[in-house]
Fold this protein.
Amino acid sequence: MKFFLLAALFGLSLLVSSARAQFQSVFMIGQDNATQTEFEQETASLIDYYWENDNYATVGGLNWSSGMEPWNNAIAGDTVGFPRALLHPGTSNTQTNIFFHLDAAEAGPNQPLRLTLDIIGLKANTTHDLDVRLNQAAPFASRAAIAGDTTWVINTTAGAAGAVAGPNVLRVRRTGGAIDAGSAWIQFDYIRMESDTSAQYINTFTTNDALLRPGETATLSWTLFEPAATVSISPGIGDVTPLTINGNGSINVTPAANTTYTLTATHNSIIQTRTVTVNTSAWEGIFELGVDNNVNTEFSHEVAADDDYYFAGNYTSIGGPNQAANELLNDDTDTNTAAGRTGNPAIGFERAVTEFDPQTNIWFIPAAAQADVTARHRISVDVLSVGSGGGGAQTHNIEISLNGQLLRQENAITGPRLIQFEVNGITDGMKTGPNSLTLRRTGGTLAGFVVFDYVMLEYLPGTLPTITGVTDDAILGTHTVAWTAQVAKTYRVQKSTDAGASWQNMASGFPTGGAPSTSLFYEDRVTPFTDPRPTYRVLQE
């Protein structure tokens, strides 16, 4: 979405396609059975595990010739077996080393690797920080504050991870976290490494805009590992080799409907493809905070920013700033920067609402058409994750309001959730001038927090229902307004005595239970018949 250039601001692409990887198993230690009973109890002698024969002296291991090491040989105290858990720093079981072999096709610098750690059985009231590395390289992945069972999937390449052809050692290490009563442990259901030996000609295939609104254009961009490859895009584009210079190319597209584009690279008669999807929407944007990318790195730490975020506009009428440009989402070093460390506390959008900082306000000034009573609004709040200081099972409640009017109460949030709903302009209270959309955590697990991926407000231009006639009855002294309706919808009837400068409600939620047919009428028995007949309008609720 181009109306706030968030991707450009933070150097992010909105959607990155994934390779059609052809993964094959390198090793799998354990069974996917939600237990660790196939492993041995951790001891100081169970640090190194050998998956297969090789001379591992170059990576700090043995010249192993006994085949795949048993996971559990039922002999306590020896060096054979795989440990069921990692313990807290200060013990002898903070790390496990897995020795294995990669061939040249698996260890090419651009070849995909996928590591899966299925984590179970954490000690209660503890959290865990892990990192993983290959050989003597720096960690290629790390994860902090693991508080419950989770499957951690890490996608990388052999070059990025530090893999080599021949002997390798994967080191999984617990580096920190919270302990309870002097100890902590984290256990594994299984650990699996996979490789993809297929040809790797395409590096990236992306779009700068994953959702196009009326009149918008997206740019498809690609980079190649193999600049000599011929490339084409389908559907409807064809050969783009002439647009590819030194392995880099791009093209603009304006699809009429949701479209998945396929980039095909061919070299030495071998083909590789990548896909990227561009969606379209009739909904037009009012604002979007963040990017739909399953991370919150563009936002501020919740204690490093205040509760008010301002889009560009003049808010002096409500005691706010005259904001020349959209407020930065984050002016600190990174999302995890604590308050006062580098940035201005008045700048930034909070990444989360918490028990101790439960509310964030998004200030915006809509255009007249966006705030019109006939417009329809769609609000999307993408909950990325939830958590609490105590870990374990938890629940969270959130309310969403506009200008102090409650629009949605979402209860019992236990994990990622897209909260998306529609409201009409006549009922949600949007107005011209300053507006505030408020997200508030109202309850749930103690010391809990709710983390956001993005918040978006959209609108559809609306039209008034067609008034088919106004009938005057001098005997009854009434005016009867008739209009074309939608079955099961309710309506608000208004009148104006000043030619539409102001409007007065006459009926709301009419008729009770919704329209029974496509033709409705309302009888005005309030306006004195001797007065000039008012102007009437009808709004769908």
Q: What stands out?
A: The longest strand covers residues 376-388. Residues 6-10 form the longest helix (5 residues). Residues 1-20 have pLDDT under 50 and may be disordered.
